[in-house]
Structures are given as C-alpha cells and as structure tokens.
Recover the amino acids of this structure.
C-alpha cells in the first residue's frame, strides 16, 4: 500500500472525467478552491484568537500585584454551652 504512481493517477483522472464531464470539472475545482480558502481563513481567525487570548493572559499575570503568603488564621472555637461547662467542671471535681 504505497503512494499512488503515475499510471494510477491517470486512471483516476480518466474516471473523474468520464463521470462528471469536461464542463463540470472546472466548476468542481472552483468550488473546492473556495472551500479551501474559507477553511484557511477560519483556521487563521481561530489561531489569531488563541494567540490574542494567551497574550492577554500573560499580560494580566505580569500586571497582577504579587501577594504575600498569609499564615492561615487559627480556627475559631465555638463557646461552650452551660451544660458542657457543668459537665467539664464535674469531671474535674471527680479527679
């Protein structure tokens, strides 16, 4: 299964010519050319949008002020209820 040789291309061209006729082939080629051009334009637009987005993101990172690392705040404990205070003092009295 190698690449197509000269004879294979000639057969393919002959079959296409017989199927579509000499008048239709230029129209088909024109349509294919327009389709390829549209595809190239669309891919160039997408590529430029991606480049633009990455440049903006890089600039945003450069202009961001550097923040110092903060130590985590100690967890806040909820005040004990009266019954918890009483049970803790009872336990201390028993010792």
């Amino acid at each position: 299964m190698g690449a197509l040789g000269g004879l294979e291309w000639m057969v393919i061209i002959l079959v296409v010519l017989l199927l579509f006729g000499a008048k239709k082939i230029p129209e088909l080629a024109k349509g294919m050319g327009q389709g390829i051009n549209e595809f190239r334009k669309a891919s160039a637009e997408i590529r430029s949008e991606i480049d633009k987005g990455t440049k903006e993101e890089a600039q945003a990172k450069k202009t961001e002020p550097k923040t110092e690392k903060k130590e985590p705040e100690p967890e806040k404990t909820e005040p004990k209820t009266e019954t918890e205070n009483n049970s803790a003092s009872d336990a201390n009295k028993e010792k």
